[in-house]
Amino acid sequence: MFHPEVVKKKCEEASKKAGFKVWPQKLENSIGAYEFFQSITKSDGKKVYYQRGDEDPEKFEFTENEKKWISNELWMCRCGFRYWFYRYFFIKTKDGKIQRPEKLIAQTILLDILAELDLAGVPILLLILKARQLGISTVIEAIILWIALFNSGSHTVIASAEEEKSEQMSEMVWVGLEMLPLWMQPTLTRDDRKLGPEFGLIHSDILIQHGSMSKGISRGSTPIAGHLSEVAYYPDPIETIESSLIRAMHENPRTFLALESTARRKNDWWHKIWLKNRRGEATGYNRFVCLFLPWYVGSDKYPTADWLKNHPIPKDWKPLEETRKQAADARLYVATTPLLKKHMPENWEMPVEQQWFWEFNFVEASDDDAELKSFLAELASDERSAFQSKKFSVFAQDVLDRLEEDKSPKFQDYAILGDGIDKRFALEEFQSHSQRRIDVPWVTMDGRNLNWKLVPLRETPRDETLRFYLRVWEKPKPGYNYTVGIDIASGSGQNSTVYDVLRVGRTIDEPDVQVAQLKSPWIASPESPAFANMLGVWYGQYMSPVPEALMAPEVQIAVGDFISHQLSKLGYTNFYYMKRFDQRLHPNVKPSRRGWATVGWSRQMMMEAYEHAIKHGWVQVNSEDTIAELGWIEEDETDSGKVKYDHEKDKTDDCYMAGGIAYFCSHTEETIMERMAGAVKPKKVEAVKEVSDERESSEGYLNRLFQLEDKRESGYDDDGGEGTAYGY
User: What is the DSSP string of 449-460?
Assistant: First the structure.
């Protein structure tokens, strides 16, 4: 098989069956014997036979030593794949030469993985994400042929994305068969270049199929081994692969299945099955073992000596910033990937030849977006960047990595109970009975007492249907203003309603901090006002002149109007009022649209401002959900030449929208302009000094009452109000 210990055990078993000690021969001895037998191999155009000199080929007989040699070699080849592969398997190179395979690094890594699985005695099921021309398909095709030759009763299958490509891939099998020594060649009972070979005397075959078939691969049969190439390009992989081939294969130690492909794009079937199995490796919920083989392990292919001769490295060449980043990412990936670290030189650095090769092709591909995407996928430094979206990601991976590193590791999840909140949101079985609960009281305009309670949870519910807890990274602090940005959904389990609470920096150079988030696909718009009210009162308790957080619900979509309308009726006053930033207001005319209105012009303006704030450190993002969404935000150029931000297909941007609304509504456009122009730089969040705890609740409450009275006397209705918050 694949592992030396397994091969040794197989040889011991074979020795008992053969009646002599089965023993590995030196490589040069096997090659010498192969050449000898080839020298006495003749053909009359119809059949191939052995002949010594002028002897009658019909009377040819092996000598006793030849018989012993052949018998030993057949047993050894059956016991160990590597033994057979490097002695008796041949490939056709691009320039038409027929030769034995070289020992390439990528192939050695693959064989090591196979050896580990073989030693564990488990089925070998692989997902192989790779660059082209690393020799991986060659090894796997050889394994399929080896299984069919030396394991009686083996039904195997090979396939590529299209019929023509499958036939091209199967050429490796046919070349391998033709180059076997005559004494090793099986009897072909099906010699069909489209269907594949069949070895009827040992009841084995290799079936050639393709990913564009109307029915699934190997449907109606039970293969023991399979190799599917370029699976990212199959039109219907769920039907072709999952529902057909995988279901037909019964997992046992003899099972071998390799699905391999270059990356095509993010969130396609290949990307999803890769992520699913990669995540499952830590918990055992992975069907497949994932193996990523980057281009730079093929130092003999990338670049070749001929390529360097045609494109010599310029004198005094200095790598571009993009090239240096690729080299750094590759170095980190090798250093943190045990399998690569094992086979690469100690403290490996990308050679200057490979850096020049990467940069040359990068510059060449940069003129066309589609070509650049393909290049970045093919020559990716790590598996995360191998999958490229059709559009360009707004946030680079290094920004996402920084956010992950900087986010607060400490948080507390709370259930929210109280007036206007349905009991199904209480999460009773998760409540902690030992931690302190937080009471949040409030008095409405008509004198009614409303009360809410934040109950700490002892653990976070894993069930997504119970996703309505408030995650708090930081409780309200005196001396700060807070904004609640809200993106409203229907509560039907599709998109999520998200409440994002932002602690606003007190000075122009102090960053904002995401201090709380409630994200739930199960909170409907009529149920949302109570949650908003509680958050506004709790986080606004230290604010003045009104002890209420700035409330900024999205109102362009009708479901967002519930919050602004209901809270206003109860006496909540500190709302963000939307204005047209491209219009000059007349004196004494104040904006009257309560909340954030998302329209074409305002959406892009807000999203770009939030993007700039995140990239340049003006906002500390603590939510894993928000950071995950940042990786899904893409930019596209419309036909009119305008840039548009949107989330990837089948993904969401609810957290991004809520956070962006909170950030944009917290600052004047002048502040954002100064920040975006780079006139000021953000301080480090941890360097910001704390302020003393001085409550102004009584004064704030009176101010709120007086403000409401002034509002009513002025004749404004519930849709009117002051233009900006915090007295800006």
Answer: EEEEEEEEBSS-
